[in-house]
Amino acid sequence: MVKSDQIGFLNHKIMKQIISFIVLITFIVITLTAPKNSFAEERASYSSAKIQSKLARAKSDYRVNILKKYLQTYNSPLADNADDFVKYADMYNLDWKFVAAISGVESTFGHNIPNNSYNGWGWGVYGDNVTRFTSWEEGILTVSKGLRENYMDKWGAQNVYEIGRIYAASPRWTGNVMLYMNRIQDFTLKNTMEAIPLSI
Q1: Are 171 and 119 a contacting pair, CB within 8 Å?
Q2: What is the DSSP-derived secondary structure letter of residue 79?
Q3: 148-160 residue pLDDT tens
Q4: Minimal CA–CA distance to 67: which of 140, 164, 174?
Q5: Where is 115: in which H helix or E strand?
Q6: Whole-structure pTM over 0.70, yes or no?
Q7: Left (φ > 0), alpha (ψ -120 to 50) or beta: where does 92 sit?
Q8: Are the CB atoms for 177 and 165 separated by under 8 Å?
Q9: Which of 80, 116, 167, 187 has the maximal Cβ count within 10 Å?
Q10: What's the average model confidence in pLDDT over 34-60?
Q11: How far is CA 93 from each of CA 59, 64, 110, 148, 182, rounded to the nearest angstrom?
Q12: 98-107 vs 46-72: helix axis angle to the nearest 10?
């Protein structure tokens, strides 16, 4: 027989999930309906520019917070660079989970890399050749820019599957990258309440 305190706990857990879902949907609606430019145009008032800027920061902070927490579950050395993943994903119009997911496949999020390389993506690593970066940020920037300019713009890849055919020799690479992207997405849904800044 189910005890009343167990029912109360289940109801609390269900309510928390419902609230998280509502907050996520509200955030998505605000994000999709807000103008993409975080700066006010000449005709926009100061207050609307301020709201736009706060929404843009909240969107960025939300993804950074989620990604940082996710990477911390792997004790990843990349966790402190969550903001770089989001910043360069936005700069090069990539899914904010993509470059982090590649590092999951290629190096278990930065744990298994060539010595002194900061290369958690297998970028330019073949045979005895190793591309070395001076920092995690340089690696994130280089891979993000390279995916956009070389794989997408130059070779016309439109999605992870088409990039995978060029990027990796293994036919399982794309599936593994998608697995990590989906795990980050699931983590996002489960941790929405904690990640969204409430001081908008």
Answers
A1: no
A2: G
A3: 998 888 887 788 8
A4: 140
A5: none
A6: no
A7: alpha
A8: no
A9: 167
A10: 47
A11: 15, 16, 23, 8, 19
A12: 10
Q: If you write DSSP's letter for every residue of 139-178 in order, what string do you get? A: HHHHHHHHIIIIIIIIT---SHHHHHHHH-S-TTHHHHHH
Query: Alpha-carbon distance 158 to 74, whole Å?
Result: 30
Structure tokens, 20? 């998280």
Q: At residue 137, what is the residue type?
A: E
The topology (CATH level 3) of 34-195 is: Lysozyme (1.10.530)
Count of residues in the chain: 200
Q: Which two tokens stand for residue 183?
A: 């795990």
Percent of the chain predicted with pLDDT > 70 = 66
107, amino acid identity? S
Residue type present at position 164: G
| Chain mean pLDDT for the chain | 78
